[in-house]
Every structure is written in structure tokens, then in C-alpha cells.
Amino acid sequence: NKNKVGFIGAGYMGFGMAKNLLKKYDVYLIAHKNRTPIEKLLQEGAKEVDSYNDLINLNLDALMMCVTNTPIALHIAKKISPLIKKKLLIIDLTTHDKTGSIKMQTLLKSQNIIYTVNPVMGGPVQSEEGVLGGIWGGDINYFDESKKYLNTFCKDVFNFGSIEKATQAKLLSNFLSLLTTTTVIEFFRSAKKLDIDINLLCSVAKLGSGN
What we know:
By secondary structure, the protein is of the alpha/beta class. It has nine helices and nine strands. The protein has helices spanning 14-21, 35-44, 52-56, 70-80, 100-107, 124-129, 143-150, 163-193, 198-205, and strands at 4-8, 26-30, 47-49, 62-65, 88-92, 113-117, 120-121, 132-136, 154-159. Strand 1, helix 1 (14-21) and strand 2 form a beta-alpha-beta unit.
């Protein structure tokens, strides 16, 4: 029998993750307001349940969460925490704020729950292609087990140690991306304002560190 993986948040990013998980595992989805990705995943072989209680009662091997932000993740954690009676690996794919993963860990503190985080680098295209970068944190004893699920949609999974370090690494990585993007935008805006030939300017930039 295939391992059972619960998936909460099969939307913008989660759709591709769940689609790739289906290639190796049985995937169970929680009812979702945005029906389009859910219907597509059901056609691929995923199964849908109506409640968190139904999801937890399936005797899952792993539960993944990929939701929009920390408040939503905490809201879900409050609902599922009392329902978990048997040992369960939780892999939280949410991009948390700087204290979010600690709040999650505190809320899910139970001898039955193995809480790990794996925020990802990449977008929905990379998610569906299965080439995301994983930023993992948690108890090292569960790194290999986490990886077997994560490798279905991550090209590489990097162990940053604690959940705090993984969360911080993700935020730093986002900072670098935003800073780089802003710099490039200002470069083009300034060239336009100064009426400089952008093609020539890019050709010159490629010969230096701007490449």
C-alpha cells in the first residue's frame, strides 16, 4: 500500500506539490474554497475529505500544510492539534513571519506530533515541475523521512537545523530576491528617464558584475 499524505492548502503553490506527491503517494485533500485546483487534483487521483477530523482519522503517514501566512496556519493548528492521537509527521510548507514557526511548534507541542518546516524557493511553475528548493528545519531524526515526501516536488532539500533557522533563511532569501528585483527595476527606469539605449546598456552590464 502507498503511504497516505494529507495536504492542507492545495492552491497557488500547493497544487503543484500535491500533483507531484500523487505520483508516489495517496493524497487526501481538505475541502477548499477555490475549487479549480481541487477538481484537477481529484481527476489526477487525489481524494477529498470534508473536515480536519476526517483527515486526521485516516491514519496518515504525513500531513503537509501550504497556506498563505502565519495567522491562517495557527488557526488550522488550533483545530487539528487536539485531534491527533497517533504519531504524525507534520511538514509545514508555509512561509512564516519571524516568530510564526515557533508559535506553531508551541501550539503543536505534543508527544504525538513531529513538527518540521520546509518553506520553499520557487513559484507555481517550479512547484508543478517538481524543481523547488526546500529549506528544511526540525528534529534531524526526521530529515530523511521528510525528504522522501519533499523530493517529489523539490529538486534539493537543504537541512538548516532548527525550525527557527529554516524560517529565518527563507525570509533572508526572500529579502535578497526582492532587493535584486528592485535594483533591476530602478536600473531600467533610470535608463528610460535618461534616454539611454537599454540594449546597449544591457550589453555593457553583461560584461561586468551586472551579468
